[in-house]
Structure formats: structure tokens, C-alpha cells
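ok so i was messing around last nite and threw this chain in just to see what happens. nothing serious, just curious
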Amino acid sequence: MSVTASLFQGPEFSGDVDANLAALDDAARRAAAAGASILVTPEMSVSGYDIGDLVLQRAEPFDGPIFGKVATIARNRGVAIVYGYPELAGETVYNSVQVVDATGRSVARYRKTHLFGELDRTHFAAGPELLVQFDFGGIRCGLLTCYDVEFPETVRAHADAGTQWLIVPTGLMTPFEIIATHVVPTRAYESQLFITYVNRCGAEAGLTYCGLTCAVAPGGNDLARAGAHEQLVTVTLDPAELARSRAVNTHLADRRHDLYPTGSSRPEQETDR
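result:
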């Protein structure tokens, strides 16, 4: 069974949450019209990302007003939605992504584990859990956020845990285009899974986002790629393609577990010299 997904490389309305939600609603409408069953949006897509102390003002629990509005959009448009927002848990704020299904029910929530510079560390705590997965349309899905995917260990951990489609909302800025053009395809190839990397576009405060939203197959080839400006990209992910790729590329099966650690294990320290 295949899944058709729309990836929204959206505009920056960082000063207006209602405008962000309106853009998300319009993207969901267009996604449904394109035959997609799920819409993926960028990192911090509802609240804005590089917004300084507004992060603290807009932070709310996972089931707060933003969730309620996104859930309503999902129900009205008949598509699942992946969106980013600042999550308030007690007195702690996380850079979070949440998945809401077409009935408006929350099915997964991930807190960014690898924080990028002062932009993240000033306002967010690092998430404590790397492996967050959910099933959608017969495909085992996993979540990472932006900087997380730049560490090969994170993607390999998902592959080892059975993730077939890795969903990565991001806020990639210039001059780091190499992440979208080279690193993400490499991650897909070396860990043999689909990756959808969904970026922002335009400018926000001191950042210029580079776009280049992409869907990459396990073979490392682009299934779809956006340019620098607002765009809705729709792509179909077929698990049969993953099976074919893993039959040819046997890196996962051929690893020497006896010579180096895999998964969450760590090498024992040598005591004899």
C-alpha cells in the first residue's frame, strides 16, 4: 500500500499565528485536492521559528489552542497534518512536532533532541526521547526535526527500529544548502528509508531560509524537490520501492556487529594496553 503526501514549503508569517494557521489550512485544502492523505509542514510552522522571546509567549501544552485549531483543519480537510510548535510541559519548553490524523486525533509527538546553536538553546530544552514512531497507511513512520537528521546515528537508530519513512520538518537557512542537497540523500541511502525533509522559505528576523524541500527515496534519488519559494510538493511513497532498494543495497544486513557497535550499544573501554 502506498501513501501520497504533500509537503508544504510555506511562507513566513512569524508575527501572526492566525496567518500561519490560515496558510496551513489552505495547504491542507490543496493537499486534499491533490489526493494526499497527509500534509507535512516545516519546523515551528504554526508559531514561527526565529521569533525571539515570542517563543515563550506562544508556547502551550500539546493539547492547547493550536492543537485544537490544527485538529479542526485536519477534520475539515480530511487529511492528517504534521506541524511544528513550541510545546510547554510544566515550566519547560520544547521545539516540538505533532501529528494529527484526519479525525483530529493526536497520534505522535516528538521533541527535538539535538539543539542548534543559541537559536535553539536560548529557548528550548532538548527532548529526552529519540525514537518516536507511528503507523500511517501501512508504513512505519518516524519523526526527527531539522538538525537531528544531520547526525547519522539518529537516522540509523530509526532504521534499526523499523522506520520506513522518516519525516523531518526543518528550518534550514543559508548557507547550509548542502544539508538538503547532499546530507539528506546520503542519510536515505545509507540507512535505506524514505526521507521527507520539509523546509521553510523566505526571511524571518535574521535568517534566510533556503527552501529545497525534498522527498528522497531509499536509493538516494529525489522523488520530488522544491525550489527557494513557497511551494506545495506532492509525492507518493511506495513500500515496494523500499523493498527493492534493500534487496540491492545490503548495507544494513552486512554490518559487522562484532567489530563496531550498532544501535544503542557502546563499545567497552579497553583496559589492557
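not much to say yet. The chain has eight helices and 14 strands.
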